[in-house]
Amino acid sequence: MLSILTELVSGVCQASWRPAVAELVTTRGYKGEAPDDSRGDLIEIPLPPWTEKDGETMDIKRRRLLFQSRKRGMLENCILLSLFAKQYLNTMTEHQLRQYDRLINEPSNDWDIYYWATEAQPVPDVYTGEIMDLLKEFTKNKDQEQRLDAPNLEYLDKGSQ
Q: What percent of the residues of the chain are helix, what percent strand, and what percent coil, each to the nearest 5?
């Protein structure tokens, strides 16, 4: 008796789920780059223009840039820029810090920074300079370091002791 009841409940449950699942599969889809996509459903959210932060001490600027290097919109840049910042940020001059600040904060798309650093796309003239050259060279990873994660922040404590 119990097995008949189990089969009956199982059959009813499966029958009730089939149409719902089939309905979901047929109605879901990715429009993406489809030719008939008018992109009318996209909303362009304007970003405020980047402005250089005046009145920051070099120490505060370095700390802000370190944080901003670690917290990016995509993992690839989190890893790349945080490791770059760990290696070079403390030795940058004020002019280099301004270049780096502009480079990582003015473009609205993190993929642009990644493509420029990996030399997949040409760098716009406004971002061309010694910091971009240094970043491109760092990105080549000539020593073939394993770069799978952002560095721990323990190295910061060593400098303050």
A: 60, 0, 40
Sequence-distant (≥ 6) Cβ neighbours of residue 56 within 8 angstroms: 64
CB 115 within 8 A of CB 77: no
CA distances from 49 to 12, 102, 115 (A): 59, 11, 21
Amino acid at 112: D
pLDDT of residue 25: 37
pTM: 0.65
CA distances from 50 to 22, 81, 84, 107 (A): 48, 19, 22, 8
- The residues near 3 (Cβ < 8 Å, ≥ 6 apart) are none
Report, as an integer, the average pLDDT of 39-63.
81
